[in-house]
Amino acid sequence: MQDPTDAQPGAGEAAGGYRPSRQQEIERLVSPVIVALDCELWGIETLRQGRSTLLRIYIDREQGVTIEDCEAVSRRVSQILEVEAPISGQYTLEVSSPGMDRMLFRLEHYAQYAGEMVEIRLTQPFEGRRKLSGTLTGVDGDEVLVQVGDEEFVLPLEWIQRARIVPRFD
User: Fold this and answer.
1) What domains sit in the chain, N to C, each tagged with a CATH number?
2) Is the pTM for the entire model greater than 0.70?
3) Which of 162, 160, 132, 156 is nearest to 8 (CA)?
4) N or C terminus: fewer CB in 10 A for the chain?
5) Which residues pair with 56 in a beta bridge?
6) Cβ within 8 Å of residue 99, ≥6 positions away
7) DSSP letters along 32-71, please?
């Protein structure tokens, strides 16, 4: 098994005191509202678009997400964001289902989708690679295990910039 923390000392170490990220702050604000609307907060993505920010909130439901669910969450979340203002400047709010090619945000997501093909982009190169495609084999502590060919990679969650399920069409 290959462990990227062996390759680069200090990986995953926190610098200074703990300060929640903007995404964590937004999650803290919107999660109770989303749960009250009988949905699950799947994840939050923020993307800079010039001078504006795109705030994409993914919601999920066991019965599937409808347009009405997205509209209801969007209305309620907009109200909270207007009052709390966790994003400075202009932003666009988008509420969406995670879809078949869903992004994975939490360790629980990686555990839930063990056995699936994934595409992973890393925050830093590991063995000269920033992108991996392989089979998600599970989690071990706070690390994600991915089988790529004959090698199994052990990736600290904080090294994963983006992970997405590769849908199968059998």
Assistant:
1) 22-96 (3.30.300.70), 103-165 (2.30.30.100)
2) yes
3) 156
4) C
5) 45, 94
6) none
7) HHHHHTT-EEEEEEEEEETTEEEEEEEEE-TT---HHHHH
